User: What shape does this take?
Amino acid sequence: MKKIIVTLPAYNEESLIYDSVSSLHNFCEKNLQNYDWCLVVADNNSTDGTAKIAKELEKESAGKIIYKFIPQKGKGLAIKESWKSFDADIYIFMDADLAIDLSAIPLLVKELENGNDLVIGSRFIKSSSSKRSLIRKITSKSFSLITRLMFGLKIKDYSCGFKAVNKNIINNVLSKTGNKQFFFDTELIIRSVKIGMKIKEIPVICKDKNVNNRKSRVSVLKVTKEYVCELLKLKREFKIKKI
Assistant: This one.
């Protein structure tokens, strides 16, 4: 029986972590019955009640929910440290607000089993639907366009928080992926392409969620600056390697 690790990176998510983990747990119980799966709440040193709630869920889950503390902030770091800590056949991560509809999880798994190394939930391909704020749509599509132009790639969505990888990515790409923040999965994609990994985009249903009037803690300006700087750094790295 194949083992699946599903990671939810979390920083100060007490307003939604109980509902998100419970919903994900119930979905996996119904739809991943032929797999040995577990959920990992990767806590980036939260200062609210995230840890307490996640630990309570862990106690009640009969081993299906694992709380992992990471003493440093960073979405990318949370995912990376979680994936490194567990041996599995399939590794998945998704944003803690579950903005991507869980119905896409079986397709993530199926496409990995079909021989792909990295499967990307994509908001920008046919059959996808996305209900998001205008600024988020513009930002995501701008990131995608810049990345494709700089690296000559055909992939359409890089920043969607819904991806799955196999052991090939864990063994050959993960350790080389250095970004600890929001650029992590874009870097993972670019590095995977560069060494010839097989990549597949799948359609998803995306809907921004406002749980208890929860506002995004992500600064668009800050993330944009980081994203462009990291792209330029990667571009320089690959250029130097060719010389």
Notes: The first helix runs from residue 17 to 31.
